[in-house]
Specification:
Shape: globular
CATH superfamily of the largest domain: Glycogen Phosphorylase B
Largest sheet: 7 strands, mixed
Number of domains: 2
Oligomer: single chain
Strand content: 5-15%
Distance between the termini: 9 Å
CATH architecture of the largest domain: 3-Layer(aba) Sandwich
CATH topology of the largest domain: Rossmann fold
Number of helices: 18
């Protein structure tokens, strides 16, 4: 099999789709029946050694994507004046990669778009859909992002021979919203990177010292700071905890700054001044592993998830999880977490307090979570994805 990928989804700062693409590529490179893997950023092609280096070095992406001189720079500058940042970005990227996509299609490469909207391609095509939150909750997204997906997804779903959904829930959403036949959509769950595992206090000490935290002494949430993640209710719920618990277990919100979060920042202000809430922003992958393993509780009361990878990563790290009882999250945790109604601040507060004071419950959820996490592996994700490819090129 010869495979082609759009590598723009690997641009830093990396998050859910980025890590999905990365782990998929790393696994595919080890598959014996994969003859070649190629990918593009701008008009630059990555394969073999350069692809491997790209997966390990995020700065190579920025260099590949920059057009500073010549006619490409002129096109880029002109595209920036097109109304809508998404349309401008799409125009530039499509123009830069058009010739190489034609070349790869003529040479029989299967193109897998891992990030929702596929470029036009005359050859076998697979696309991964991670969620349809832009249809269920358009109010939680920038208007230009909703327009980009509304315009691009119908064409993408028509072009693709097979659509991969990251959960059974998302598969059902695709059927319900877009009416695709059952045989065209395959549910392939995501995996957990082996690096997410329980770590001892000594291993985590350096990272914890940077934020003046103690081992097993804080509530953690990891996500982009955006409305869909329901952080405003989480912060409000945390603020209702007894002061002694807030001081003993501060809330740590790790993630890149998102959008529509002014209310969240206003709520967080008094807690931050009291030392009861910390927002370090985006942290390195190395430190993230340590923060996961050091938390007393992982809180993820998201309103909508196509999968919810941070929940799986927390379970693998040996941390009890509080999460929502809606969308894909019950499917992912499979009974290994404390589930609450994410729209109820009272339930979130009660769940946090219960997990912080009930040691027996924490230990039970840690055991269940570790067992569940072993069932979610990237090896399985890669193998099932390869089976999709094989069905299209055989």
């Amino acid at each position: 099999m010869k495979l082609l990928f759009d590598l723009n989804s690997l641009r830093p700062p990396r998050s859910g789709v980025s890590y999905y693409t990365q782990h998929l590529l790393e696994g595919l490179l080890r598959q014996p029946d994969v003859e070649d893997i190629a990918g593009w950023v701008g008009s630059t092609v990555f394969r073999e050694g350069s692809l491997d280096a790209l997966l390990r070095a995020e700065d190579a992406l920025q260099k590949a994507a920059q057009f500073s001189v010549g006619w490409k720079a002129s096109v880029l500058r002109a595209a920036r004046h097109v109304p809508g940042v998404y349309n401008s970005r799409t125009l530039v990227r499509a123009f830069a990669s058009a010739k190489l996509r034609r070349d790869f299609s003529r040479r029989g490469y299967l193109y897998h778009e891992t990030n929702f909207v596929a470029s036009r391609y005359h050859g076998p095509n697979v696309v991964t859909i991670h969620d349809l939150s832009h249809r269920r909750h358009p109010e939680f997204h920038p208007r230009v992002a909703v327009g980009y997906l509304d315009n691009g997804l119908p064409r993408t779903l028509k072009q693709a021979q097979t659509v991969i959904a990251v959960s059974r829930y998302t598969k059902n959403e695709i059927h319900e919203i877009y009416g695709l036949p059952d045989e065209k959509v395959v549910a392939i769950p995501l995996g957990v990177e082996p690096a997410f595992q329980p770590y001892g206090e000594e291993f985590c000490a350096t990272a914890l010292a940077q934020l003046n935290l103690r081992y097993r002494g804080f509530v953690l949430s990891v996500c982009t700071l955006q409305p869909r993640k329901n952080l405003a209710r989480l912060v409000e719920a945390f603020a209702r905890l007894p002061r002694v618990l807030r001081q003993a277990f501060p809330l740590v919100l790790i993630g890149a700054d998102g959008w529509m979060n002014s209310t969240l920042m206003e709520q967080a202000g008094p807690l931050a001044l009291a030392g009861e809430l910390i927002t370090p922003g985006y942290v390195s992958r190395t430190n993230l592993l340590r923060f996961f393993a050091s938390a007393a509780v992982f809180a993820y009361p998201s309103l909508y998830e196509g999968f919810g990878l941070p929940v799986a990563e927390a379970m693998a790290s040996g941390v009890p999880v509080l999460t929502s009882n809606v969308t894909s999250l019950p499917e992912v945790v499979a009974g290994a977490a404390l589930e609450i109604d994410p729209y109820s601040v009272d339930e979130i507060t009660a769940g946090l307090e219960r997990l912080l004071v009930d040691e027996a419950l924490r230990e039970e959820l840690i055991k269940r979570g570790l067992r569940r996490a072993t069932e979610l592996s990237w090896g399985t994700t890669v193998e099932q994805t390869c089976n999709v490819y094989r069905s299209l090129v055989s």
